[in-house]
Amino acid sequence: MKAKNKKWLYWIVGGIIMLGAVWFFFIREKEIKIQLETVKPEMGEISNSITATGTIQPVDTVAVGTQVSGIIKSIYVDFNSTVKKGQLLATLDPDLLSFQSEQYKANLQNAKSNLAYNEININRQSQLYKVGAISKADYDLATNQYNAAKAQVGSVAAQLSTANKNLSLTNIYSPIDGTILNRNVSEGQTVASSFSTPTLFSIAKDLTKMRVRASVDEADIGNVKVGQKVSFTVDAFPDETFDGEVSEVRLHPTVSSNVVNYTTIINADNSGLKLKPGMTANITIFTQVLENVMKIPAAATSFRPDSLVVQKYKVNSPFANGKKHEKGQWKKQNKRNTQNKKEEAGVWIIAKDSTISRKKIKTGMDNDTEIQVISGLDKNDNIITGYKLLSKKSSGGQAKSPFMPQRRGGGNNKNSGGGGGPR
């Protein structure tokens, strides 16, 4: 009987120990630890910008064509060839135009011979008319024939000049120094210039200077001005940033899918010849830039001590009491500050003795990532931007985002980084 009672006693003691272990490891509420994340104000550049896409093009491109028709006899350059102004690029078969030139030369000799005969005739008719040997009508007829012969010489001479000019146009020369971007013809191909000038070559004047033809949305074009700095990237060099400058904002709009865009021209240096015509550029235009100003992260003005912070740190604020927090006093103060954000905002500072206090600051430019501080902060201030949970029961100890929706309530709000205090 005694052994049976001892057995039950062992079972009871073991059960109590198991229940205690379950409570200790799984049910017991562990202490929540938090770590504030702080930054110090820094001096630097702050800017507002807009983004756009565009196409890289040479600054100046010349389309070289032909004014005469014919068969391409020879081509002396190819794609990417570097050419000089006046360099021979190609020739057309000159035989047909050469024959035409010879024909006009013969016609000119015939016209000159006819002019010489009529000149002799008019001199003879003039002498006969003076002595009354011929009538006035005969003299006028001789004069008319002489003038017609003279005009014929001029007409045929002009036709010969045209034929010679057309013959010279069978040689295609480069009009500029540059690089051949495109060759549209091959030897033996026939080109006809009856209605329009066919393009034989496209020549880029200087590939060390490029321009970006960007399409800027109508909502952003009002902030774009000539002279603004630009940075852009291309897919060929994703880790490299290229610099440029806005040189022109064109007034002619383009509409695509009911979206109005305006063409903006950006000049860029291409000394390294990395940029190729036709590349797509991802563009950032800096519409406003301030240099050497004090700035802080935008998250700093969004942080507000919640009940967890109040429990772990001494908060130097008239609304540090948790009940007043729940009554919405900080929320009302925050609403007033938000309405007058440019004139007055607030950040929370942690001192060396771990006391948290709020400082009023005057802000300037805000690009949603950083905020310019005009006054109210010292460069040694430790500004609180958020906190992270260090407890094992927390969600991985991740940093709190002040932009996430906050739950109302007191000390059990473990996933929020604050809620309700003045900004």
Automatic annotation (TrEMBL):
It holds the Pfam family RND-MFP_C. Residues 210-285 form the YknX-like beta-barrel domain. Residues 101-169 form the Multidrug resistance protein MdtA-like alpha-helical hairpin domain. Residues 61-198 form the Multidrug resistance protein MdtA-like barrel-sandwich hybrid domain. Residues 320-342, 390-423 are annotated as: Disordered. InterPro entries: Beta-barrel_YknX, MdtA-like_BSH, MdtA-like_C, MdtA-like_HH, RND_pump_MFP. It is found in: Cell envelope. GO terms for molecular function: efflux transmembrane transporter activity. Keywords: Membrane, Transmembrane, Transmembrane helix, Transport. Residues 322-339 have a biased composition (Basic residues). Coiled coil: none annotated. Residues 340-386 form the Multidrug resistance protein MdtA-like C-terminal permuted SH3 domain. Residues 408-423 have a biased composition (Gly residues). NCBIfam families: RND_mfp. Belongs to the membrane fusion protein (MFP) (TC 8.A.1) family. This is Efflux RND transporter periplasmic adaptor subunit. It comes from Chryseobacterium lactis. The lineage of its organism: Bacteria, Pseudomonadati, Bacteroidota, Flavobacteriia, Flavobacteriales.
